[in-house]
Write a structure and sequence with these properties.
Layout (H helix, E strand, L loop, with lengths): L2 E2 L5 E2 L9 E6 L2 E6 L6 E7 L4 E4 L8 H6 L6 E4 L5 H4 L9 E4 L14 H9 L23 E3 L4 E3 L4 E6 L8 E5 L4 E5 L6 E3 L7 H12 L5 E4 L9 H15 L9 E3 L4 E3 L1
Parallel strand pairs: 6-7, 7-8, 8-9, 13-15, 14-17
Antiparallel strand pairs: 1-2, 3-4, 4-5, 5-6, 10-11, 11-12, 12-13, 16-17
Bound molecules: zinc ion (2 copies).
The site of one zinc ion has 5 residues, from loops.
């Protein structure tokens, strides 16, 4: 893996590692991860008989289309759990086949409230060995719109396997989880992961977040696939996050601006 010298210059004596780490979840499901960035984002590629579904598209600093094409030649629908910058980064290379919840359709058409420079600062303001052909000045937010608008209960048919859209607002108004009941798999985006769960931005809603966690707790789930950080998650994490939100509600803290709360395996920032 590439390293940087103390003055920030790249040390080119170290061989370049691929930006995306690819792991096979099962015979026709893959996870493409960006472990080199502190966001540690994950994109999931689910291949059916007729088409493939890509869940989230990462930071947008490397060629996700090329990484996906190395895994499948099926037509790909790129669906995002929500339209935050760290999930829509690679959407541009899937234009024409983009899906987002209807409540965030404006966010993928230039209407996202965070400025380009704020996003660029969030992306690059860390010690990270970016790919050598990535130039922060060229970074742009996706604004090509969506061809498919998602609603709660929609089915995404891939041929021989099918995903259900679960609208789980709170972290963002149009946040969705994707559920594959036949495999007991829940793709949780930024609703559930081992890290800091955020419901403190102006567009978040802690009470909705809590209701969404409670809702996914009722699903029959065997495996969790989060949007960030460790992939080794016990399914019991859903119940733990649910209990944490319930506790915050009982002590009158379930509102934006009430602070950062540490529960060990995860934190909740309201
Ligand atoms: Zn997010
Ligand atoms: Zn995220």
């Amino acid at each position: 893996m590439e390293r940087r010298t103390p003055d920030g210059a790249r040390d080119r004596t170290v061989p370049e590692a691929p930006w995306f780490t690819v792991d096979r979840i099962d015979g026709d499901t893959f996870v493409l991860s960006e472990w080199r960035h502190p966001e540690e984002t994950h994109c999931y590629l689910l291949c059916g008989r007729e088409r493939a579904l890509l869940i989230d598209t990462g930071l947008g600093v490397a060629d996700l289309r090329r990484a996906v094409s190395a895994l499948t030649d099926l037509p790909v629908l790129a669906a995002v759990t929500h339209a935050h910058w760290d999930h829509i980064g690679g959407l541009g290379s899937f234009s024409g086949a983009v899906a987002v919840h209807e409540r965030e359709k404006d966010w993928v058409s230039g209407g996202f409230s965070l400025s380009l420079s704020a996003v660029r600062d969030a992306l690059t303001g860390c010690a990270c060995a970016f790919p050598p052909d990535f130039h922060p000045a060229d970074y742009r937010l996706y604004r090509g719109g969506a061809q498919r608008l998602l609603r709660d209960g929609d089915r995404l048919e891939l041929g021989g396997r099918s995903l259900t859209v679960i609208h789980t607002p709170g972290h963002s108004p149009g946040h969705c989880c994707f559920y594959e009941p036949e495999r007991g798999a829940l793709y949780t985006g930024d609703l559930i992961y081992a890290g800091q769960l955020d419901a403190f931005y102006p567009t978040t809603d802690p009470r909705q977040f809590r209701r969404s966690v409670r809702r996914v707790r009722t699903l029959a789930v065997d495996r969790l696939f989060p949007g960030h950080h460790t992939l080794d998650l016990p399914v019991s994490l859903i119940a733990d996050v649910d209990e944490a939100f319930a506790l915050l509600d009982r002590v009158g803290k379930l509102r934006r601006g009430s602070g950062l709360f540490d529960f060990g395996a995860f934190r909740i920032r309201l």
